[in-house]
Write a structure and sequence with these properties.
The structure holds two protein chains of two kinds.
Chain A: E1 4-10, H1 14-25, E2 30-33, E3 49-51, E4 60-61, H2 62-74, E5 79-81, E6 85-90, E7 100-106, E8 109-120, E9 124-126, H3 129-132, E10 142-144, H4 145-155, E11 162-166, H5 170-181, E12 185-190, H6 200-207, E13 214-215, E14 218-225, E15 229-236, E16 249-252, E17 255-258, E18 262-264, H7 267-271, E19 276-277, E20 282-283, E21 296-298, H8 309-329, E22 344-349, E23 353-357, E24 360-362, E25 367-373, E26 377-386, E27 389-393, E28 397-399, E29 405-409, H9 411-414, E30 420-427
Parallel strand pairs in A: 1-2, 1-8, 2-5, 8-21, 10-17, 11-12, 11-17, 12-13, 22-30
Antiparallel strand pairs in A: 3-4, 6-7, 7-8, 9-18, 14-15, 15-16, 19-20, 22-24, 23-25, 25-29, 26-27, 26-28, 26-30
Helix pairs in contact in A: 1-2, 1-8, 4-5, 5-6
Chain B: E1 2-6, E2 15-20, E3 26-30, H1 35-46, E4 49-50, E5 53-59, E6 66-71, E7 75-76, H2 80-88, E8 91-93, E9 101-103, E10 113-115
Bound molecules: flavin-adenine dinucleotide.
Chain lengths: ~425, ~120
């Protein structure tokens, strides 16, 4: 193991693997640090098909998608540090020889590695019961859906027998099918919002195929039990998402699975002083996926929650190649922080568009703007404005919060824009 | 009868609204962007097929006690529980390579269950 590298990638999921591969291809010497004892990240437990349709042009399972990247990485001289957890990053400065200082621990001790550029690819963790404050007993039998997924698909453990699932995001839906196939009973999926949060094909293939009911505008209002969950109370909610008195129903069950969202794991990013975007809980980045700290890049679920691994790979490849360029050229090849040459544009989102990534783009190159709507839009027209001037208008179509969208805005339309643009949506009847 | 179908042939995932008669023939279909959507819908109303993914026990591996597996083609949905029972009785030994056949020709369909990853 060397003590310094051109590029250090933190996290060995599809984002980290793809970024490391691209940085290596660009000629950088690269290390990848992963806290688990194997590479692949969350994909190892996502044993279902539905990955790779875009990137590999083939429907793969999560492990197959990861294996392809792992096999490619094994054919390179990228140093892989497994069972090693990064604790903090001290950004490059005069005192530390212009190398970002990465502190990590593993079974053999604590180490500090230097890197000219860093790619943050630490993924997400799941929101828990504490985050939505479900009242009732503090009993065993309440799991996040991803944890139950890991138990069943990797650890050969059975989390319960009779399940209620809260949240209709893809993880909850995928788990409803998986539990059913393994002979466990799923009594129903309950969703706070008046619409389902997962992909339509998952509603179809994971719930309808198995006759599992989906209850919209309904939430769990109490957990009942002494030591183990014995039942949950569910209630209908009004248009302000408040439980409606008198609609309570008690569902006997022994396990409650929560599929209520993901939070980017940015604790390490914070130690480096990386500025975060409150709308995504990920870093504020420019169009090379560089964060507010020069030479530190971010991609994948740690940047914003992705529903498709394919999009993660595309984003991470860009981050990896720009990280390599930064390391090899000793600085930003095309800085997008605006101060340098006045070619920078700040992108903001207006409702119903919830956020955009990146936040900073350049006038002199095409911009791929990723965004999500906050609520379903039947017939929306994407509009990009610079002040009052409209610089881009899309075609009317449906948008869903469960699908991350990408709009490419060509450089020729950006050339005349001011230093701020807004991405919004007009709704047609 | 009216049905809503989600074609999973490509990433577009077109949603089709189809109307079928009592012989499960499609009378009308709207929403598909290409002809493959109709082919998918014809299958879907008569005998829906899905890729089945699950796990089998693996012995002798350093980090893993389960091996993820999948069918190498879409398998009729009506056979999924049958194949699940066969997989429950199945165990393999490390090492395994992605694509290795774990259960050949399940239920006489010509479809194999294969390893989804390599385990050393
Ligand atoms: C249940 C579920 C179903 C999904 N279904 C689909 C699907 O059908 N199709 C599809 O395309 N996508 C799907 N996705 C989405 C896709 O899997 C994710 O978007 C993608 O895996 C995210 O990749 P990532 O590399 O950013 O994060 P991860 O895969 O989470 O990888 C992050 C890695 O970083 C490591 N790490 C974190 N912190 C540290 C640290 N401090 N030091 C060292 N290592 C660290 C973690 O251990 C982990 O290995 C699904 C996701 C889930 C959870």
């Amino acid at each position: 193991m060397k003590t310094s590298y051109d590029v250090i990638v933190i996290g060995g999921g599809p984002a980290g693997l793809s970024a490391a591969l691209k940085a290596h291809e660009a000629g950088a010497n690269v290390a990848l640090i992963e806290r688990n004892d194997e590479l692949g990240g969350i994909l190892n437990q996502c044993i279902h098909p539905g990955f790779g349709l875009k990137y590999f042009k083939q429907e793969l399972t999560g492990p197959e998608y990861a294996q392809r990247l792992i096999d490619r990485l094994a054919a390179t001289d990228v140093d892989v540090l497994l069972s090693s957890m990064v604790l903090s990053i001290e950004p490059a400065s005069e005192e530390n020889g212009h190398l970002h200082q990465i502190s990590l621990i593993n079974e053999t001790g604590r180490y500090v590695l230097g890197a000219k550029a860093v790619v943050l690819a630490m993924g997400c963790r799941e929101r828990t019961r504490g985050e939505i404050k479900i009242p009732g007993s503090r009993v065993s039998g309440v799991f996040t859906a991803g944890l139950a997924q890991r138990y069943i698909n990797m650890e050969n453990l059975k989390p319960g027998s009779r399940f209620v699932i809260l949240g209709s995001g893809d993880i909850g839906l995928i788990m409803a099918r998986r539990l059913s196939l393994e002979g466990m009973k799923v009594l129903g999926v309950y969703e706070l919002m008046p619409y389902a949060n997962g992909l339509f094909r998952n509603i179809k293939n994971c719930l309808e195929d198995f006759g599992i009911p989906l209850h919209l505008s309904t939430t769990v209002t109490k957990v009942i039990g002494k030591e183990r969950v014995e039942a949950v109370e569910v209630s209908k909610v009004d248009e302000n998402l408040r439980p409606i008195e008198g609609t309570q129903e008690v569902i006997p069950c022994d396990t409650l699975l929560l599929s209520i969202g993901l939070i980017p794991e940015n604790e390490v990013s914070r130690t480096a002083g990386v500025e975060l975007n409150p709308a995504t809980n990920g870093a504020l980045v420019n169009d090379t996926y560089e964060t507010s700290v020069p030479g530190i890049f971010s991609c994948g679920n740690v940047l914003h929650v992705h529903d498709l691994a394919d999009n993660v790979t595309v984003e991470a490849e860009r981050a990896g190649s720009f990280a390599a360029a930064y390391a090899l050229q000793g600085g930003d090849p095309a800085p997008a922080d605006g101060e340098a040459d006045g070619a920078c544009i700040r992108v903001s989102a207006a409702q119903p568009v919830g956020y955009t990534v990146p936040t900073f783009i350049r006038k002199d190159r095409n911009a791929s703007i990723y965004f999500r709507v906050r609520r379903p839009v039947e017939n929306g027209v994407l509009v990009v404005k610079s002040g009052e001037t409209e610089i881009f208008r899309g075609k009317a179509r449906a948008y869903k919060p469960s699908i991350m969208e990408c709009q490419i805005v060509p450089a020729k339309l950006l050339a005349g824009a001011g230093d701020e643009i807004t991405v919004s949506m007009e709704e047609e009847k | 009868m009216k049905m809503r179908i989600c074609c999973t042939t490509c990433p577009n995932e077109c949603e089709l609204d189809v109307e079928v008669d009592e012989n499960k023939h499609i009378i009308s279909a709207v929403g598909n962007k290409c002809p493959r959507g109709l082919t998918f819908a014809e299958k879907e109303v008569v005998d829906p097929e899905r890729v089945l993914a699950s796990t089998v026990r693996i012995d002798g591996a350093a980090h893993n006690c389960l091996l993820p597996v999948r069918t190498d083609a879409a398998l009729p949905l009506r056979l999924h529980f049958d194949v699940m029972r066969q997989l429950a009785a199945c165990a393999v030994s490390a090492p395994v390579k992605m694509g290795d056949v774990i259960l050949p020709d399940v239920c006489g369909t010509g479809i194999n269950v294969v390893a989804s990853r390599s385990i050393a």
